[in-house]
What we know:
Blueprint: H1 13-24, E1 29-38, E2 49-59, E3 65-74, H2 78-86, H3 88-107, E4 115-119, E5 124-129, E6 137-138, H4 147-170, H5 172-175, H6 193-211, H7 217-224, H8 230-238, E7 247-249, E8 258-263, E9 266-272, E10 279-281, H9 283-294, H10 297-302, H11 304-321, H12 330-339, H13 341-355, H14 373-379, H15 383-399
Antiparallel strand pairs: 1-2, 2-3, 3-5, 4-5, 6-8, 7-10, 8-9
Helix pairs in contact: 3-4, 4-9, 4-11, 6-7, 6-13, 9-12, 9-13, 13-15
Amino acid sequence: MSKLFEVPDYLTGDLVEYALQKGLKCKNIHVRNVVYSAGSSGGDNYCSDIIRAKVTFSKGGAVKTDVSLIIKCIQRSESRDLLIKMGVFDTEEKMFLQIIPKIENILERTISPKCYFTCLEPTKTFFMDDLGYYGYKIGDRTKKLDLEHTLAVMKHLGQFHAGSMILAEKFPDEAMKVSKPTLFPTNKDDLNDIHFSMFVKTFKTFISVTADIPKFERISWKLRKFSDTFLDIVTQTYDSSFDKLKVINHGDCWLNNIMFKYSQNKPVDVKFIDFQFSYLASPGIDINYFLNTSCQVEVLRSHRSELLKVYYKSLTEILQKKDFTPIPSYEDIKYEVFRKEFYGFMAFATLSPIMSMDSEASTDNDFSNIGSEEKQKQIFQGKIFLEQLDFCLDRYDKLGIFDL
């Protein structure tokens, strides 16, 4: 166990016992032992502290049973208080307890870990199944996903989006619970220090990095005109007011929020975790975000069309099976992805370099220091990010998104 790992005082056996009683709907559960360990490392999670708990309990006096839990604790800090005000943890609670169970009923399969219980006091805490206990693993964010893993994600993302479309038709009030954006609020006055530190400062550093590379000097000059309006453009792109085709987006669909199960070293199932930024909007949000934060450059260079076709096939198979109409065309999906390309560029320029930092450099990553001069210098030194820079900048320049 890491020397820095400490179990919060409030995380007692009694609270774990109550969480299991609520989640399993049984009052006769009694916790006999809990062994805690750190559930994530530096650079893997920014919004919460992740704790793994192996719990031994009895049910009605019967033989003891073991279960492994992931406990997400949102302990108070200045940056996390801003996230709380943004409503990100309220959104996740709605997703886990109200919306995802209905989508899973529609799909007739699970798409995420079971959430046993959430509490607000003494701090916001989620008690969930530990998918690692069942053999699920997260990929290596410093290497990003190869074609096989990317195809698996696009297939399951299509299923999730299809299930959400059916949910929105059958239970419109449920879908409207996540109609308010959290990551980029449409009201500019609600933008806060996190937005400016993580996005604006990092984007300005991105411009400087490209300016220092002779072949990107022309593009860097184009980017400079966005330096003061970058958040405005991103917020406009994120706004769903004019989205005709809507799904419930995961909202933070990147490698660390995706878990794979394997058979003979091949990914055979995918589960999504962390739904703080889920949002009813164009599917182009999730698709662009995922492709630009999580996939190897060769996958992006050579297989984009294949990936979109796999997504579309998966989406339409569910919609047809459930007699949903009207089913969007493949051209509709391509158009939605195109409409949200600037959002993909935002993810590439400001988030991907942070997400792909090597483990040692990212150990102390936090919302509170991401805008510091020292951290900004570190962000753009990653090998994986620099490998993608050529391809992505050239592609976006040809698309014309820098000519807005």
